[in-house]
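Worked Example 4.2. Consider the chain below.
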Amino acid sequence: MKYVYALLVVLILAVGALTLDPSLVSVGGTPLSLIYPVNQMIAVRGVVAAVCGLVGIIVLIMALVRALMFRKGAFIAVLGVGLLAIAGGHLLILSDRGLDNPGALPPDYGLTHVAEGTGEVTVLSYNTLGGETAMTDIATIVMDNGVDVVVLSETSTANGEALAASLAAAGQGFTVYSSGADPYNPEIESTVVVLSDALGEYRQGPDIGLTWGSLHLRSVSGGPDIIAVHPVAPVRGLEESWRSDIERVYAQCGAANTIMAGDFNSTIDHMQATGASCQSALDGYVGGYGTWPASVPGIFGSPIDNVFTDWTTKAAAVVEVGNSDHRGVLVRLSR
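Applying the procedure from the previous section yields the following structure tokens:
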């Protein structure tokens, strides 16, 4: 019987260890990380760590009781220790990606309307959940942090124009670009980019063909190209569309002098599972801090809002205003 117990412990720990990197196993040629519901699980490593840790503690208590009463419980003890180790592995990954959120950026000495300053570019990406986040709140973040590039998912063109007007009233010139979603459709399908005129002239090119739309802005004056994205969510019934969308998104990472931002509806783990090797500007700063849902602590959330670029990160933060179900991400970049 002890061999059966040993086999069960090994199997349980093997499955648990696989949660650290489900893409090691493929089903029909598709990495497990990209298959529902594992794609949902790997997006919330903090929750997985908490579950493994809690179960591990309970199992260790059971092992201690068995040891004291029956002088048995070695296999259960091994299981408990193993589960705690798996929990620790998830926490180490999150910690390495970054959990220390400053909540704001240091003073901005980058681009202005009259000088290039240090040449640093500050980016804000925020899913505003339609009208649930006031553009005046977004304007405050922009002005307080010296933001040059504003990428707003689930935001109507009208709201983007309202933001630009609010900034203009404060003496800052911004231009609005839209993904061109039908104004009568839910704002979930609309993404806007609001660019500081200090970046120079831009032209809007063909998008990258996502289900919910995207924008591709090309600089005329040597600034960074801007790609704004919002892939479809990885829910049951939309798995194929989701995988197609994120593959299109992460295929853009090879472009030089490009900043890609938005609600990616996927994490670094999903990106790696597609075979891409994109560089997240948040990695090592706040890359492990969950941006959705905003109703739970960052360690238990999913870091699906991101910025990918070949520029160098100088500072990064996660911010929260309004009633959106997302937090926003701020990053300051140097060429």
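The chain has a mean pLDDT of 95. The CA atoms of residues 35 and 239 lie 7 Å apart. Compare this with Example 4.1 before moving on.
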